[in-house]
Amino acid sequence: MERFKSIGGEHVNPAYNSTLDEPPVYEESNFSNGEHRTVRPSVVSAFGHDTLDRMPNIDFYRNEGSVSGHRAVRPSLQELHDVFQKNGAISDTMQDDKLGSDGIPSDDIESVLPTDSGEGTVKFGWIRGVLVRCMLNIWGVMLFIRLSWVFGQRGYILADCYTILISDVLINHPLLCVCVLAGGAYYLISRSLGPEFGGSIGLIFAFANAVAVAMYVVGFAETVVDLLKENEATIIDGDINDIRIIGCITVVLLLAISVAGMEWEAKAQIVLLVILLVAIGNMLVGTVIPATKDKKSKGFFNYQSNIFLENFTPAFRGDETFFSVFAIFFPAATGILAGANISGDLRDPQGGLPKGTLLAILITGITYLVVALCVSATVVRDATGNITDLITPGIPCNGSAIAACELGYNFSSCELQSCKFGLMNNFQVMTMVSGFGPLITAGTFSATLSSALASLVSAPKVFQALCKDNIYKALYFFAKGHGKNNEPIRGYVLTFVISVAFILIGTLNTIAPIISNFFLASYALINFSCFHASYAKSPGWRPGYKYYNMWLSLLGALLCCVVMFVINWWAAVLTYGIEILLYIYVTVKKPDVNWGSSTQAVTFVSAVSNALSLSGVEDHVKNFRPQVLALTGSVRTRPALLDLAHSFTKNYGLCLTCEVFVGPRSEVFQEMNANIEKNQLWLGKTKRKAFYAGVACDTFREGTERLLQASGLGRMKPNTLMIGFKRNWRTAGVEAVQSYVGVLHDAFDFEYGTVMLRMNQGLDVSHLIEAEGQCENMFGVFVYRNYCLKKLMAIKWLQNNITFPHAVVVSHIFFPSVSVCSPPPPQVAKMNERLLEASMQFKKKQPKGTIDVWWLFDDGGLTLLLPYILTTRKKWKDCKLRIFIAGQMKSLLQKFRINCSDIHVIDDIHVRPSSERKLGDMIEPFCLHEGSKDAAQAEAMQRDQPWKITDKELNSFEEKTNLQVRLNEVIKENSRSANLIFVSMPIARKEAISDFLYMAWLDILTKDLPTTLLIRGNHKSVLTFYS
Asked: 16-72: per-residue pLDDT in tens?
């Protein structure tokens, strides 16, 4: 069928409708059997035939709640694979996988905002949202107030190198490599390194931005105070107190602009940018206007080569060093994140951030270099400001003010006393140099206020993103947004409080180093997060920046760490100390998030690498540890079996809890797939270090056989099967018993050690879980669930809550025909109570007592090793080990160096049991009794009922049968009060001992005993007395 366009002509499939290639929608359908459900229509697509398959579409890859487009759901695999119904629709429909913020793939790619906030929201392009914001923030307070002082201290060469270094590091900034959404740097770190690093650095980064507001506002206040001084006006003292007052008033006005909304804040930024550009131009023009005598006396001489050469080299004064000056000037470089911090408010963060940020770095970098050159070539370091300080003709120039001397001015007195003018002394050099001083003042106001405004917006935005992730539960209060743009009003107020606190310090040179360490720590982790993601080689890490290099990211991270300690070692230690404490807090709390971090990727790579390394090493008896495959069914079905298996493996061995779904695959596979994730999550929440595995098969034995053969990875595969004793073997039916015993035969065939747990009350609590689920579905309220559970389990709820009887009344009124949650009969309630207590037996600390080990057969030592392992666990530390043997093996036990309180040698095991009737009654229904029949009749009976126990079999294995009865009597005599009993499991030879006789052996051996474990190793040594 033709369906293509060519250059020479156009061939169109008449059945093709391009609109049908859009993401499919669901339709309500009624079926002939009266069923009503939502299905997808099958359509004629671009492929020219009736199909549900869809062409690739970006909407399929969006997340729920995406703000950049509607999320569509592609046809599921089941929809395409399952059998069609009569009307051509799919039999079942996979619903949209709506994942909330605790899952949270919905947070991986796109910001998830409330759906009602999508209309009328303000989104910025890369110019207003990134370029303008970054330029204003990078220029900032340092451009007009501290740049001249920095170049006076460090000289043009060092400051130039510094500017180039910072620019190079920032140009390779990892934020340019990925799609960064709401939260900026916090988003990148948390999604890359996980919530532990992201949560800690997110708080530090938001705090640094809040303190940056104070720094910029204090810079603004300094300028205002200097202006007041020039006009001989003060508020209080013309010094630090005036700065505090002006700063507090200013931050209140900035808060008002921020709260008014992002649109007003963006408009204000444009106005401030225009003023700033005019001021910079005014300063450049001023450098070529001939200097007046007044300006010369203050150190300005227009462009002079000798001034540039004098200012070319560093001249640190007082306690200042290269890195102390670096710490003060470094916050000027933090503006690179101004666009990223509001990434949630950008129309296209992935495209706009690299473009706007790089261009901002280029423009501001050139500006700093040009301004530095202009200042260094026109203003000397020291000047008196006295127009009469002229050089006397004929006196040679020497000392530190040679350039000024050569230009006719004598500033040598500045060596003896502090002067007020020059690069080193006057923070308002830019105003003096400019063509029109008030414009520089306006530019200073613009630079400081724009940077303060940007930081005042950035800090709450980053903090809101952190709080939305709910990593710190106590901070979730600040996650709430207001208005169409989801403004973090509460975050604004908190930022305001922090800013005012630091404004009260009142000194710019004190505030700047504080935030330098916080920003450097953030940059270090940002760079490291990108390196880490590259190192993990995760397919999901695809940098969008063409010139990105992982080793440059690592170098940037190391440089940031080194500079932190060089600037101020104790501040660096304090910063990392805070970060480590926050990291530990998040690690302990374990927030329920999944962001696909590179930490997960590295963990996976390490696990694969270690598994491969183990595969190349042969097993050694000294390193043997039980790797348990426990047939628990669902993880909640047999809690005692799971708890005991977990006690054996703990954090040091592999534990697989397995379930076999019996039935046709088409009927059980959906239930199996749904249970895999649910059961694994439950294991994690209950802190069981185990894995869940499920298989779907036609029979229980076939499923178990698959698990025994295919479970594990390389050397990390199970070596011990744990199974519960089948209590109902006498009533379960022939097929069920054959399947159960067949599992034991399979375990021996595959050389598994085998452990069977028997508890008098039983292991299976699935009926209680099922009843709990019915109660939850019926009432949907915790109080009713609590009531149902307590009644089913017969716990004395009357002591806890006297209002529960009212729930009984309500259930009878609204659900008169349902008795699920009504009180069970007393006898059933008592049984349920005992079952519940028994199922929790291994979850709690064991009382003082003994663990009795009946090591009757040498199976390689597993019967002895497992109880020893139990004694090393905290819950079992008060239990002493007692060993019962049938021969003289004391010397062997001593060589194994296993501490035990007693070793008992049993000499009367082979004595005939006192009562054989119990066993006879037990196997009577399963005996063939062919001995009294003639040969033909006996043969026919055996052919019709081959599973029954023959008289010949009973006679052949009479001694072994009596041994099981006798062992039960001896164990009762010696271990009736034991906490736990381990007994060597008898083995039934295949095709020699019938399944029912073998079950009778196991039953009579453990009958009426405390909790008992039957154990048989695989007859390979797991113990050695060699060190």
From this structure: 344 444 444 545 555 444 555 455 555 444 455 556 666 676 666 565 544 455 667
The Cα diameter of the chain in Å comes to 148
Q: Which of 512, 167, 543 is nearest to 358 (CA)?
A: 167
**CB-based contact 46:16 (threshold 8 Å):** yes
Q: Average pLDDT for residues 983-996, to the nearest whole number? A: 89
Which residues face 882 on adjacent strands? 852, 902
- The residue to which tokens 């490291």 are assigned: 528
What span, in angstroms and rounded, lies between the C-alpha atoms of 463 and 183?
8
User: H helices of 537-655, where?
Assistant: 550-567, 569-589, 598-615, 639-649
C-alpha of 633 from chain center: 29
**77: which residues sit within 8 A by CB, 6+ positions away?**
none
User: Measuring CA to CA, how many Å separate 114 from each of 474, 483, 484, 808?
Assistant: 21, 11, 10, 40
Which position has the token pair 């390394």? 613
Question: 3-state class of 37 per DSSP?
Answer: strand
Q: Do residues 169 and 364 touch, judged by C-beta distance below 8 A?
A: no
Specify which residues 982 forms β-bridges with: 853, 1013
Crossing angle between the packed helical segments 782-792 and 826-839, to the nearest 10 degrees: 100
For every residue of 500-555, DSSP letters joined together read: HHHHTT--HHHHHHHHHHHHHHHHHHHHHHHHHHHHHT-TT-----TT--HHHHHH
At residue 495, does pLDDT exceed 60? yes
pLDDT digits (tens, 9 = 90+) for 71-91: 677 676 556 655 554 444 443
The one-letter amino acid code at 877 reads K
Instruction: Provide CB contacts within 8 A for 956, sequence distance 6+.
Output: none
Neighbours of 560 (CB within 10 A): 21
Q: How far apart are alpha carbons 956 and 31 in whole angstroms?
A: 64
Sheet architecture: strand order including 628-630: 691-697, 655-662, 628-630, 720-724, 753-758, 1012-1016, 980-984, 849-855, 879-885, 902-905
CA distance 436 to 142: 20
Q: State how beta strands 655-662 and 691-697 pair.
A: parallel
The residue count for the chain: 1027
Q: Measure the CA angle with vertex 117, ends 114 and 119; round to 5°.
A: 145
Spatial contact of 642 and 630, defined as CB atoms under 8 Å apart: yes
Buried b (16+ CB within 10 A) or exposed e, 720-755: bbbbbbbbebbeeeeebbbbbbbbbbbbbeeebbbb
Q: What is the full DSSP assignment across 235-296?
A: SSSSSHHHHHHHHHHHHHHHHHHHHH-HHHHHHHHHHHHHHHHHHHHHHHHHTTSPPPHHHH
Q: Are 768 and 832 in contact (CB under 8 A)?
A: yes
How far apart CA 100 and CA 37 sit, in angstroms, is 25
DSSP state of 598: H
Query: In order of start, what are the domains of the chain with their CATH numbers?
Result: 126-383+420-589 (1.20.1740.10), 621-749 (3.40.50.620), 845-1016 (no CATH)
Burial code of 68-105, b = ≥16 C-beta within 10 A, e = fewer? beebbbbbbeebeeeeebeeebbeebeeeeebebebbe
- Going from the C-alpha of 130 to that of each of 55, 124, 184, 487, 1010, the distances in angstroms are 35, 8, 12, 18, 73
* Cα gap 780→788, rounded to integer Å: 11
Average pLDDT, the chain: 76
pLDDT in tens, 109-126: 333 333 344 445 667 788
Residue carrying the six token digits 């019962």:
884
Report the C-alpha gap between 176 and 349 in whole angstroms. 10
Q: Taking the chain, what is the end-to-end CA distance rounded to the nearest angstrom?
A: 77
pTM score: 0.62
486/123 Cα distance (integer angstroms): 12
Euclidean distance between CA atoms 566 and 573, whole angstroms: 11
Mention every residue, 6+ apart, whose C-beta is less than 8 A from residue 767.
Answer: none
